[in-house]
Design goal:
This protein is an alpha/beta fold. Helix content is about 35%, strand content about 20%. An eight-stranded mixed sheet has the order 1-7-8-6-5-2-3-4. The longest helix has 18 residues. The relative contact order is 0.19.
Length: about 270
């Protein structure tokens, strides 16, 4: 069945099909047996970012320094405005970075301690003979029609001993983001995407943060278009409290972080 794109304007009937299809797929995929681990937030940053965004930031700032050790080249799929560059600079990366994005909103003024290049093209049409030590995407795969073709191509562009990491919305995030991309990801789809490869899956977010985001971010901002709750000082404290409570309620993750090694050992064999 053709997937509907929640990023474009859909008719009311199409919206209902989008929600029903993704909800049912999430329920079915949740029955898949796939080992995952819960991410315990290390730092409780201030600011008005959503709970999910804070989990992603915490994961990246903790994991990127380990992932870039010994890496000379990085390819980012869907680089956007270049957020990952700041993370890489903080991690001490000094190699070559290539960012891909179909739209041109790259900040060319800022300098970094590594070589930066941006190519204004979708990953699907990107052609290169280069092989990369690290290939990554952050909340990008859900916006691509054929995500399986993307993971096959990224595998082909990976240098020997290279690593991939991808962050994508998990099935429970449907009520939080509503019409967003083509899909959310369940465990069964992750198995299909990375079949025959050695990969680990980390859950970002727990039930307390899920509820906070739904009631403090999704509902008020959908109704008013303004950050009514996030602008308050108490919001930042609430996100920190929710992250601590998540340790006791480690379900309803909003994101999956997948790290894929360059070999071909299946996850079941690796476990």
């Amino acid at each position: 069945m053709k997937e509907l794109n929640g990023d474009i304007k859909l008719r009311r009937s199409e919206q209902l099909v989008y929600f029903a299809t993704n909800f049912l797929r999430g329920c079915i995929d949740s029955c898949c047996l796939l080992r995952t681990t819960f991410w315990r937030m290390r730092s409780y940053a201030d600011g008005d970012a959503s709970p999910t965004r804070k989990y992603i930031d915490d994961f990246l700032y903790e994991q990127i320094p380990h992932l870039v050790v010994g890496k000379k080249s990085i390819l980012e799929i869907g680089c956007g405005s270049g957020y990952l560059r700041d993370v890489l600079a903080r991690a001490g990366f000094t190699g070559r970075y290539v960012g891909l994005d179909a739209r041109a909103y790259w900040d060319t003024e800022k300098t970094y301690p590594f070589a930066c290049e941006v190519v204004h093209t979708p990953f699907e049409t990107f052609v290169t003979e280069e092989r990369f030590d690290l290939i990554c995407s952050i909340t990008v795969l859900e916006h691509i029609v054929d995500d399986e073709a993307v993971t096959r191509k990224s595998k082909a562009l990976l240098a020997p001993g290279g690593v991939e990491f991808h962050i994508m919305p998990a099935s429970p995030s449907l009520p939080l983001y509503l019409l967003h991309g083509y899909r959310q990801y369940g465990r069964a789809r992750l198995q299909r995407l990375f079949r025959g490869r050695s990969f680990t899956v980390t859950r970002l977010g727990g039930f307390a943060s899920y509820l906070l985001q739904f009631f403090a971010v999704t509902i008020p901002e959908r109704l008013t278009g303004k950050k009514l709750v996030r602008s308050r000082l108490s919001y930042s404290r609430a996100t920190a409290i929710a992250a601590r409570l998540d340790r006791f309620l480690p379900f309803a993750a909003t994101m999956f972080a997948v790290i894929v090694r360059g070999d071909t050992i299946s996850q079941e064999e690796a476990n």
